[in-house]
Amino acid sequence: MRFVVTKVCSGGGKARAGALHIAGAGIGIETPALLLSTRKGLPAFLSCDLLASLPLPDSLLLHVCPTHFIEGPPVKTISAIRGLHGMLGLPDHILVAAASDSIESLPSCEATNKFGASFETPSGRRLVKPSDYMELISCMKPNIWASLADEVPAWVTEKRNKVSVDRTLRWLDACIALDVASGTNSFGVIVGGSSLEQRKLCATEVSKRNVSGFWIAGFGFGESIEERCTLLNATTDCLPREKPRLVSRLGLPEEVLEGVAAGIDLFDSTEMQNGVLNTTDGDSTKINLRATTYRKDTSRLVDSCNCFTCQNHTRAYLNHLLNVHEMLAQILLEIHNTHHYLRFFHSIREAIKVGEFDLFRQEFVKKRRTHFAAVVV
Q1: Domain spanning 2-273: CATH 3.30.70.141
Q2: What is the pTM of this model?
Q3: Is 9 annotated to bind ligand?
Q4: Which of 203, 229, 251, 332 could disulfide-link 309, Cβ–Cβ 3.0 to 4.6 Å?
């Protein structure tokens, strides 16, 4: 893997544009970029052929969770069919494997212990040891993998934050030692909860390891906006410039812009709900397509959009699909929303390249606030 920073904002800003090159992928991915979240390998409601309708090469980055496959086909079976690329039928996509729980399933008890991290599975919580995890990584053959992390919510004690960092560093060393597959790229995980000291310590220690990049984990678990901004900036200040940084759970457009301003290159777990997004214009419009007002509306979801959904279907048709509970409605909305979020990242990159990211961010947030104020009124 090769990562190159091509542009950094002037005036002391940390927002940066870059290019990520994966050996064998044949194409570079411009950053900041979005990793499409998947469920057992594919984005929700999007099959392989529908993925091809999304903007390229932006849609080639997929985030997969290795623990989703604990109860799937045997590891030897996955390995025999050329890993996840072969099993999913996506030979040209870049698969980034990182294990993490959703916000909803984060345990309130100490399910994670010194032996391994705890994750939610269809049959309940499972303790995953570094050896188990690396067996999954070895058979899945992702392009990039992140080590195990002990993620904790913001309200834990300083002592628990320290334990989280110690465990995560220990598991990182164990995972690297167990990585016997050739050509893999590892991302070291940075945790520390809401503790500024522990975040800095973890970032500094992970930087000393032989890793290809960094996964900044543990956000979205109750920290305030002010805390997150401070923690993000303090963390990236401790990281080397020449390696990519990935952050979890910054899903709202404002949160993405906050991450980009702190020097983040890759974003995962961006959740797009079943509204209609128009992020390019800065309003992220969400409308209730089930409402009767759209039954006779023959216009597109967004006039300026050239996604498959907007080019082929009307609001009236989507209103019909939603009200008869047809799954095609979710598919068409997913195509539209994913298309718009990828274009949003394209706009961010263009703003950085011309040195206008700060202006782009200010105008985007201003339009969003104006839109929401109008909705409330």
Answers
A1: no
A2: 0.91
A3: no
A4: 332
